[in-house]
Fold each of these.
Amino acid sequence: MPSNDTLNNNSMANVPSSSVFKDDIFRGKVLFCTGGGTGICQKMVEAVMRHGASAFIFGRRENVLHATSSDLSRHTLQRCSYASGDVRSIESLERAVAKCISEYGRIDFVIAGAAGNFLCPIDQLSPNAFKSVVEIDLVRCFIG
């Protein structure tokens, strides 16, 4: 197992996905991603789009989704659109899926990335916070 020094070493270069995958491996495909407006999910969406896919991102904050969608389209030269809503609402999720299918005709890939996070020790997590995390991270991935 690597030492902490190795894990924390920022000098390690990222391997470009183009060294592993063909540049157009996802050309003509459609990605649907919950939680794609920020963080690691945004970067995963970007990576898939750089290989030719169009993307549809879904999350709670419309202003963030609008900006991210525009940035992703501009940087990847692929189409990216979005819908805002709460992944805990089946109706909201169904509307987003319907909008994606209406715009793109289908969904080929899904990244179920929406997550609930409460950064605190478990003994400080309230029952409602725990229920929210389970609902977002587990139940909606299964149902959605």
Amino acid sequence: MRRKAVYCNKPLAVNVKRKLGKGNHGVDDVDARSDMHNYQRLIKYLPEPIFVHDGNEILFANQAGLKLLNITDSGIFAGEKAFRYIHPDYWERSAERVQAIMQTDEPNEFLDCKVIAEGGEIIDVEVSSTRIRNYLNKGTVVQSVFRDMRERKKEEEALIQSEKLSVAGQMAAGIAHEIRNPLTSLIGFSKFLKTKIDQYHEYFDIMLVELDRINSIVQEFMALAKPQANQFRKHDLVKIIQNVLTLLETQAILRDVQIVSHADATSAELLCDENQLKQVFVNVLKNAIEAMPSGGVITIDMTLHQQSELIVEIIDQGVGIPQDQLPKLGGPFFTTKDSGTGLGLMICYRIIEGHRGRMDITSIPEKGTTVSIFLPRNV
């Protein structure tokens, strides 16, 4: 009897012979096994993860399936529970879909799901299943095709982030222009009056400090609002970071923070806008210093990946950031500090994106934060 399996909603021919009687038992069993081996060879190297299971245990997975779950030894995989790698939040729905698919030869639609790979990584996927009848001595089984959604999720998040930057930039432009002119007048007249009045200097000093703080916020708004013209030249990233460390040396000493820098890269030259990258490292290192009120060590590690990408990791021993707040970092006006606009980190993301790089932040509360910056050497 000729049956059809389905890959990506397209039929794949699979021949599975029923046992015709006692006399033909051995022949049919061999034929069935041969057909199943042919079927497994057919799907083994297909690019999308495919799993065959009977609702209770996993019978087969192709190479892409093993890779998705980070399994290197297929021997330990056979016989695992069917939902062993499905996230518990999806067990009930997955069981219902398996029951439903047993009633039809039509594949069900792709739906969102999550799987837990070896090592604990939770992976967003989409899954569609169809039934295969007379699979050896298992009767009717289920073939499930998975789509790894990690790259699409990253692209969607990048698009959302880009839209946020655009909206925030437009809003920042309007606010900054409205504030800048009267602020300049306030600063100028405050300095003028301080020179003309012999008393109340302490109040003038407080006013000027606060006006400077407002001015720094306006400058952040302006930097976010206007498109930055990149001046790409060849620069040594080690020297850029050393210049930044010189700028922040006094602030680090006052907070009892030691900064240790390691550069494993044999060549740290890259095409970049030097001033923009300085702005990024100043912002990230200031955040790291301020995150350690009791002092500590900040480690800067630089490595060269495959001669094409420089990776800078800035690791602090600060208070850390709660896991639920990490996805919000770099969003408009989001900050974990008691004061601040949150625009500094947002500008950093924008600059790194302009260099066709990326910036990742990981953190453990009460342990510290790691900021990883990936920069291609040739933009």
Amino acid sequence: MSLFERMKNLPQIILRPVPVGLFQPVLGRLIETVIRNHPDIFDRLESSHYKSILINPTNFPFVFLLKPNPQDPFLRAYRRRNAPECDARISGSFLTLLRMVDGQLDGDALFFTRDLSIEGDTEIIVSLRNALDDMEGSIADDIAKFFGTAGHVALNALRNLDGKKVHL
């Protein structure tokens, strides 16, 4: 069994006792940073600005609700049991979602191998994926930069977790 497989549920164990409220200010600043760095992503989702996407890292004790309105960006964490209603849901392990956003994995391939599941308004998810595919750089890099040196160290560790070094 690879290190990746053994550590798959570690986030669930580590993050379970953390109060979700601690994430809210950081998530708000994070989504504003992403919009500032990549306004074209949300411009391409114009028909979906008032819709909601639930991002479900299956090995986390919480989910994230994203509303891609550039005028009023919204990214919030919820305990799994308190997950709000949404227009679309995308589910997969944290590393699967990260690697897809980072451009390391193909969303279509993940869907067909069932490593990723999509429910609800699939048009929103496909539009978001296309916008991410067409953007320059990586949202994962933006997030790492947001957290400084610790963020870059963590992202590099996650990118290399299964022993495959990826150069972007």
Amino acid sequence: MDNLNGSLNPWMIPLTLGGAALAGFVTGKMFGDRRRGAKTILKLVTNDFKKEGPLAGSWIDYQPIPFQRFAYKTTAYRGGLRRQEDDQLVNY
């Protein structure tokens, strides 16, 4: 209680920033690189399409391929869906 004049401890800001940086680093390591398998991705996409109507078929390659869009590089799965729309089979 010696610090009654309202000034901050000189260590308060660096310790707060360091703690926030450490928490962000740990959170990034825990949740940052969550890759999903091909089967999980196909299930998520087919469930979303089934909300709009029945599917005639779906497929996915289980081997990921390199994918680049501008400067962003990642891996992706190739796949497709087929369903009936206006008496025609449409591929996605």
